[in-house]
Amino acid sequence: MNEELRELYQSVILDHSRKPRNYGELHGEGCLHVHGDNPSCGDEIDVFVKLNSDRISELTFTGQGCAISQASASMMTQKLKGRTRDEAVELAAVFRGVVTGEGRKLDKEEPLGDLTLLEGVQQFPARVKCAMLAWRALEQAVGNTPDSSVTTEE
Amino acid sequence: MTASSQPDWTQVRSQFPALAQVIHDRPLIYFDNAATSQKPNAVLDVLQHYYQCDNANVHRGLHELSNRATEAYEGARKKIARYIGAASEEEIIFTRGTTEAINLVAQSWGRKNLRAGDVVLLTEMEHHSNLVPWQIVAEQTGAILKHVPVTDDGLLDLDQLEQLLTEEVKLFSFVHVSNSLGTINPAKELCAKAKAVGALTFLDGAQSAGHMPVDVRDIGCDFYALSGHKMCGPTGIGALWGKKSLLDSMPPWQGGGEMILKVELTRSTYKPVPARFEAGTPDISGAIVLGAAVDYLESLGRDQIWAHDSELTRYALDRLTEVKGLRVLGPPRGQQRGALAAFVMDSAHPHDLVTFANSHGLALRGGHHCTQPLMRRFRVPSTSRASFYFYNTKQEIDAMIEILHEANKFFG
């Protein structure tokens, strides 16, 4: 078994993919829903956000996908619940730096906690889209130009 | 050579330099042949020789190199005509591949002949390349697209086909061998049924041309297309075959040099087929090297290749039953199928499995295989696919089974 593979599929990541946290839908007042598509593999994800003024009070997701996209979504929901929209957008940018290895902001990575375990994705460029799928949907939901769907191809 | 006398496949394999490499400390097992095949030295040598000795533009040149290039280019057309049983080489048009061949017919024949309300019949198991070009021409002409459904066993629903094959159907375009299911469609029977209602037929041969004997006149289709890179040839070259009378009736779809007789500032006259459909400097080296690939496949024997690939596929399907939580899509064991097995595993998503396999030197493909509607039909987002060619071995399949067991342990 090679080292890169172990780096990619660490036990925490496999645990999140097998038992995703905050899995489910949110409906009702203040709830936003964004559908994310990864046309290159057919994976789809739905991210549900409940905003209390500027703060994310609830964050869930549904969908099926690979271990990386599921774990990333699961860990994202845990990390961003309770954050403000601006904080969420900032953390998404930091996370993008971690998985792509580009424009990393090491001093800001500590708040990502376990999410930095997804750093192994760097060695698998084809999988960056998997790791970013839920985050792209989240960014869309809390960003300035909300849209109901997003694709990894844009 | 008869079907019983097989080439020395070990020796054949040694003629493919790309296969002799180590990936992540393991010998490469290349099971992505439905996407593209590897190339033998006999083919690579022709490519090198062409550029080292004969490189020139074709047709109008009067010098030695141009004569050589033209002779080799037109010679390749003859080889491909013979290879698929065409009546003459004038029926062979070089294209970039199957995709471009379908687009050519959709835009040339389709735009001229399709009227609002006409039906183009396709199937649910088509590659995107046999769906999207027809969607485009349907938009342009008002033609209607209909699709033959696929049964749970991955076969075309022939009862439904009877209902769908009405006189409004002007063309029935379908895949010979499904790249996602491995299904071999009964091309001859389907073409006869289409002909009975006056419809033309287009047979997508991307997955059949390199694997099994193909005789377009025996099959009775009107168009057939192939991709060179899936049959030991280079990428970027393929061929469209059409019946001469049909091709003669079709307008050009791209204009430029090589395809004209006389050009004035505001109008032109066009050459007869096949030149009419080959505007601009063609992929000369590609065509010549594809001709070499055809020679190579014929030297092995088309029946022999088919017998080998079928045996390997049977073996793979048997052994895949040993892997826990694995389900193969497509025709059940015992039924004839193309040289591939696409499957889903309970423990691992295709992308994870393919990543895992790659780290063990095994090249699989994971995804929708450019058949998104078919994935929806089977309610899976994607599958993992192992596809074989004559240089693959049973030992490689044994190794794949071990890797799949390991993946179950790793992800399960």
CATH C-level label of chain A: Alpha Beta
How does the major sheet of chain B shape up? Answer: 7 strands, mixed
Quick one: which chains have the greatest interface?
A-B, 20 and 19 residues
Count of the separate structural domains of chain B: 2
Biggest sheet layout of chain A: 4 strands, mixed
Number of helices of chain A: 5
The CATH superfamily name of the largest domain in chain B is Type I PLP-dependent aspartate aminotransferase-like (Major domain)
Return Rg of chain B in Å.
22 Å
Distance between the termini of chain A: 35 Å
CATH topology call of chain A: Sufe protein. Chain: A
* Mean of all residue-level pLDDT scores of chain A: 89
Features:
heterodimer; A: about 150 residues; alpha+beta; Sufe protein. Chain: A; 4-stranded mixed sheet; about 40% helix; B: about 400 residues; alpha/beta; Aspartate Aminotransferase, domain 1; Aspartate Aminotransferase, domain 2; 2 domains; 7-stranded mixed sheet; 4-stranded antiparallel sheet; 14 helices; 17 strands; globular
